[in-house]
Amino acid sequence: MAWKKAKKIINSETITALSVLAAGIFVAMMFNWPIPGGTSLHFVGGALSGIIIGPWLAFFVYVMVLTTQAIVFHDGGITTLGANIFNMGIVDVVVGYAIYKLVTRAMGNTRRARIIGAFLGGWLGLAVAGTMAGIEIGLSPSFPYGIKITVPAMAIWHTLLGVIEGIITAFVIDYLYERKSPLIEIAMKVAPLAQNT
Amino acid sequence: MSLFERYKNTIKILTILIIISPLFGIVLAEKVNYHEPVDVVAEKLHLHELDIYHTPFDNYEVPGLPPTIGYIVAGFIGIGVILGVGALLAKRLSK
């Protein structure tokens, strides 16, 4: 479905932007901030990708990033690749993008609205994606604990850490707009496609 | 003009980020004795990783290089693969 929607706007320019964004997300994920107590935090960027190039193309950003991580670096794993693409490339992207659009429609396309929309999109996109991962882990037959344990564990952590994701998303969106990045030119071109779907 | 010419500044920023990335991915991780939470749970449950495929740079390590340098090289390999695939697709579409 993403391909059917995205192919209307796929050309060498959008593919180049998509791969630059994918490279950025790949590098951001290498910044694994260990948190004493056993967990870690890294930027996921689903909302950021959805806001910049729209949800249909953003899906392919995660196909590129997560497949490279799994095939070249054994990171994430091949058997969980589908679930990872679903959580980050669909759930996080769509939730983050939808919240950003709701906020910018309600407040107008101002700098303030973009910052608030990107913050909420980044935060809640990650919270929902983390909750979804909790449901998947809880339903997995390999995992003896059910969703009553896995969902709260994943949802609470991702909702807390998602605040930082929101702050970074807002900062990057504001920076790209203020610097008139070429990525924003692409965002302007793909916006009508995303809105018509 | 090269496909990525417009993104020269972005690629410069990514290069700097890759160079400092081992501070987080390796140095801090060792300081707090970090292990991937899912791996810790799997170990406690006596689950074993399926040995179904091998990758050239497991866990961002490059054979023969110290972990920090390997992490940096792995970062460049990663963005090289992604931008390379992007460039191939873009060239194909521009024909």
CA radius of gyration of chain A: 16 Å
Instruction: Tell me the greatest interface.
Output: A-B, 45 and 51 residues
- Name the structural class of chain B: mainly alpha
Give the DSSP E fraction of chain B (strand runs of 2 or more residues): under 5%
Mean pLDDT of chain B: 87
Quickly count the helices of chain B.
Answer: 4
**Series of secondary-structure elements of chain A, N-terminal to C-terminal:** HHEEHHHHH
Q: Strand portion of chain A, in percent?
A: under 5%
* Major sheet details of chain A: 2 strands, antiparallel
Arithmetic mean pLDDT of chain A: 89
Overall SS class of chain A: mainly alpha
Shape of chain A: globular
Secondary structure: elements and pairs:
The complex is a heterodimer of chains A (197) and B (95).
Chain A: H1 2-6, H2 12-30, E1 33-35, E2 39-41, H3 46-73, H4 81-107, H5 111-139, H6 147-178, H7 182-195
Antiparallel strand pairs in A: 1-2
Helix pairs in contact in A: 2-3, 3-4, 3-5, 3-6, 3-7, 4-5, 5-6
Chain B: H1 8-20, H2 22-31, H3 37-44, H4 67-94
Helix pairs in contact in B: 1-4, 2-4
